[in-house]
Structures are given as C-alpha cells and as structure tokens.
Amino acid sequence: MRNRGFGNTAIAGVTVMALCTGAWLLRSGAETHAPPQPSAAQARAAGDSGRAAAPALPPSPPDRVRIPAIRVDAPLMALALTAAGSLDVPPASKKNLAGWYEAGTVPGETGTAIVAGHVDNAEGPAVFYDLGALRKGSAIEVDRRDGSVAVFTVDAVEVYDARNFPDEKVYGAAKRPELRVITCGGGYSRSTGYRGNVVVFAHLTGSR
Question: Which keywords does UniProt give here (predicted)?
C-alpha cells in the first residue's frame, strides 16, 4: 500500500475497503439489492465550486451526522488507524453508526474532514446504503460537541473503481472547510465484494 494525504493529515493505504465486503448481497445470492449509484449528472462540473463557503468553525469533535434527503441520522464514533496503517471502520454489527477520522480535520474547520460508514452488513442495508442517491445541493448536518451544528452543501457525488481511486482529489488538503462522506459502491462481485467507493464532496455553507 502506498502513502496518501488524507484530510490534511498523512494516512496509509486504501482506507475504506474494509467497508466493502458486501456480506448482505453475498448472503442473498443476488445483485437485485445493490445500493443506488450516482449518475453522471451528480459529478462535479469543471470550475464549479458550489455556493460560497461559510467561515471556518473552531475545532470541536463531531457527535452526529444527519443527511435528511436520504434519511440518515447517525451517531459518529472516532476512527483511528489499524496496526496495518489503514483507517479503522465502525463495527459492522452496528448498522446505524458512522465514523470520522479523529487524527484529521474536524468537520467545520479548514481542511478536508472524512466521514465513513458501511453500505450494508450481513443483515441488510446500513447507514450509508442510499449515499449514491444523494444529489447536488443536498444538506449534510454535523452536530458538534460544543453545541454547534456545521451545515455542509453537497457539491458532487461520484463513484470510483478501487483500482483508479483519485487519492488527491478525495483526500487532498483544502483551503476551506470541506467534507467527504465515503462508503462502498461501483458495482458488486460475489468473489471480491464491492468494486469501489461512492464519495460525496461537500463544503461548509453555514452553522447554527
């Protein structure tokens, strides 16, 4: 595995593949349950930075993420690195739990904050099952421990094959408060699980 920049902080390896086994699809024996995938219309247009960014917030750990358009309302746990140097993931048994990379950027402060969660588990859909159905302009809200709520607006929703994952585009440093929400996608193989990742690109547009 090669090193890559991850949310303004160095991190090693393909960090989200542990999310991508597709245990539910393998157990069901069919691809008819595959989660939605983003269309080309939701990709970032050249030169489009979306709505103006709001001023950065002071650091405060996040406690919860809400994405009303796809009915996500989930607690956030802190994620660290595994012994192998990749990002750990939330327990698969807790399907309505997401995580954020604690050693990286805090959601709301300047830089690229990372949130990740499972698309499914052995029992069925998990927290980010519908992430690929999210559309540009949708809101993502992050409750923070200081009582504030960081409000992000979705700029793009894209899907990447694991073999051609654009490290710098997804994990690279940002000059404004940005957020990436990541789960699995990109088609499904019974032998290897999901072939890639769905990535939501968003930036801070408000707070309360």
Answer: Hydrolase, Membrane, Transmembrane, Transmembrane helix
